[in-house]
Amino acid sequence: MSAVVCGLGGWLPPTIVTNEELCDRLDTTPEWIRSRTGIIERRVVSSGTATSDLAVEAGRRALRSAGFSTVGAVVLATTSPDRLCPASGPEVATRLGLVETPAFDVDSACSGFVYGLATGVGLISAGVSDSVLLIGAEAFSTLVNPADRTTATVFGDGAGALVLRRGRPDEPGSLDAFDLGADGEHSDLLAIPAGGSRQRSATGLGHGDEADWYLHMAGRAVYQQAVARMRDSTRRVLERTGCSASDVDVLAGHQANIRILEALAERLGLPGDRIVSNIDRVGNTLAASIPLLLDTATNGNLIPGDRVLITAFGAGLSWGSTLLTWPDLFVQPVDLSAEEETT
Ligand code: COA
Hints:
This protein has 343 residues and is α+β, with helices and mostly antiparallel strands. The protein has one domain: Peroxisomal Thiolase, Chain A, domain 1. Helix content is 31%, strand content 22%. The chain has eleven helices and 14 strands. It has helices at 19-23, 30-37, 51-66, 89-95, 112-125, 149-152, 197-203, 219-241, 258-268, 279-282, 289-297; strands at residues 2-11, 15-18, 41-44, 73-77, 103-106, 131-138, 158-167, 174-175, 178-182, 190-191, 216-217, 250-253, 307-314, 318-325. Strand 4 (73-77), helix 4 (89-95) and strand 5 form a beta-alpha-beta unit. Helix 3 crosses helix 4 (89-95) and helix 8 runs parallel beside helix 9. It starts with a strand and ends in an 18-residue tail after the last strand.
């Protein structure tokens, strides 16, 4: 028994923030952001919009793509849940009409979607669920310090979702081989210090530096870790599947920085034209990054039969990779240049 990808959908909030707009308030230039990250614009939620709102839109599109009205479980990968408690997954499932369906969150930052995929495959393989809706959604702009040029330039909001069903290992879309890893030794490289039990127990509610309520990122160190971890992780997945880099048609890597992906492709011996990217339009959307990328890549860059190498890296530190043959799906990809209508 295997788990097979059978539906895909994405959604972006309508508000676009360009590099030029960021430069009005930050000590940076549009050209610096574009040349050092590949990002030209990103989407952000408007006041009052939360991660679950984005997740519901992407989830609905993925269910439609699969032709499903029910699933056996909902997994929401997010690092920006609506509230610290409870998890946002149950509310998302209910709003999708998935009554009393098991639902929970996976918090693994930018690796969250790959961790969620492995979780979904596990639920199906163990016979717990016959299908899973996996959503990656983030309103992470709410956790980014608007005055910090290192992070405010990089992150954006969005959502993407996949549907998995029980299937055969030899079917296109089958997910079998994963490599997952984590290293808590470097957890401080990407962290939001306040808000959890550590600072509350030490200083009480609301104390400490306001900047501690936002993401702190040691950009250069994270960059180096990202390239090395994704290189090793993808090599392990290729080895496990008996494939080599020349078998890979598409490198669908986490969209954190286009230079990270170029460095990764070079280290794997993959030509640059195998990289698919939408980072110029969406920035780094953490757990939403991979499904949003797959969704937009179906617009001509990803065709049935392609061997797709998926890899992600993020806070934790954490990383994960998998390889699959792209299935024939009915997808209506998000239009990166236009506002999407909510449904
Ligand atoms: N505009 C102008 N200068 C900036 C800047 C910005 N937006 N952001 C950082 N700088 C400055 C730094 O302050 C530093 O200045 P200094 O030399 O005077 O100290 C200089 O640029 C170089 O900083 P560095 O961090 O080495 O730059 P970089 O080329 O590595 O690019 C990032 C910065 C954040 C784009 C890059 O490190 C990165 O992408 N890191 C990984 C991000 C990531 O993957 N995060 C999420 C994990 S999934």
